[in-house]
Amino acid sequence: MTVITPPSTATSVEVRLPSRLGFEKVAMGTAASVAKLMGFAEDRVEDLKTAVAEACINAIEHGNHLNEKLSVGVVLSMDANTLEVKVIDNGDGMSAQVAPPDIDRKMHGEEDPRGMGMFLIQALVDEAEWVPATIEGKSYCRLVIRLDKELI
Fold first, then answer.
1. CA-wise closest residue to 121 among 36, 79, 59
2. Widest Cα–Cα separation across the chain
3. What is the CATH code for 11-151?
4. pTM of the entire structure?
């Protein structure tokens, strides 16, 4: 595997998506390209793609309420060891801690099968954080993966 070391200073890539389902794939592809350039293993790239897709879908549906006049911002920032992805929307953000889903109840059809995105995201990345709306009226989900985790 060829590893391309990014510059020692942080570099960032920004993408603006329409609030329309399907455009999360643009963010997935962008995140995958950056992670591959940084030298992440293929399984970590796949995990990141899934986490980014979930975060974008949440931003489109819950943050921007499918309002196509609003956009979702995706900012990827990298340094020599870390890739951070912020998915930014116009919603209020998470106001309270959400209880973990009951997988058994979901599997037996006793609970809505949806609603596992946040827990999936947390399982797939090294750090996940949901930041409520700021004065500018934007909230975001912050995802982080680290190259050094792969060396363990």
1. 59
2. 51
3. 3.30.565.10
4. 0.83
